[in-house]
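Quick illustration, no need to memorize.
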Amino acid sequence: MACVGAIDETGKLLQLSTFEKSVNVEKFMLFLEELKQKTNVRGATMFLDNLSVHKRIEVRQWAEENGMDLLFNAAYSCTYNPIESMWAYAKRKFYKEEAILEAEAKFDSVERRVRKAI
């Protein structure tokens, strides 16, 4: 699973898209179009990491056509990218909930076997 998100300067989530497999330029362009529909991107600056998809000519052309500036983070500097904190929080919460669901499933399985044995 792959997620692409956009937050504003206050940390508010503006757009979230999830994909079954990794993000390619077509998926990222779809994300940008959905973001455009939800917000007024004209005059905005998008702060991006160095994923190769972000640097594609299609993305640069889209940004130019929509009056948006692209600002790229320094390589290997995820601590300077505010959305990385959001992703870290989301991952912790996701894996915690996944562990709880897994434990509940195991408990239900054991409980069914015990009831069947009795």
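The chain has one domain: 2-117.
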